[in-house]
Design a protein that fits this description.
Elements (H helix, E strand, L loop, with lengths): L1 H17 L5 H19 L4 H24 L21 H15 L6
């Protein structure tokens, strides 16, 4: 369940403007988790030890990703979305041409 949250936060941070840096927390957490798991497994540790270390790594990655989602990268400007009200209205000629084109496509033909 935490992996789904991490992936969602990574996508959200990517779209916020962090781009490839948004992949670092997840990659580092997975890499460290692999190394810790290999060391604990090689030393004869139990699965309970792995679970605790994995939870610490996941929570750390989630906190870092949440911080990245909350803030823009340094030097980035606020993303702007154009307001629909600012878009120019279609002229009557454009609307008529669109209606004629739609009717020509949707009208049944005599050859069918």
């Amino acid at each position: 369940m935490l992996l789904i949250l991490e992936i969602w936060l990574t996508v959200k941070a990517w779209r916020k403007g962090w781009k490839a840096l948004a992949l670092l927390p997840l990659g580092v957490a997975l890499g460290i988790g692999f190394v810790v798991g290999a060391v604990i497994g090689a030393s004869g540790g139990s699965g309970e030890d792995l679970w605790a270390w994995g939870l610490i790594g996941d929570l750390t990655a989630i906190v870092i990703l949440a911080f990245m989602c909350a803030r823009l990268p340094q030097g980035a400007s606020t993303p702007t979305v154009p307001d629909v009200a600012e878009q120019p209205a279609l002229s009557a000629d454009c609307r008529a041409a669109d209606i004629e084109a739609a009717e020509a496509i949707c009208a049944p033909t005599a050859n069918r």
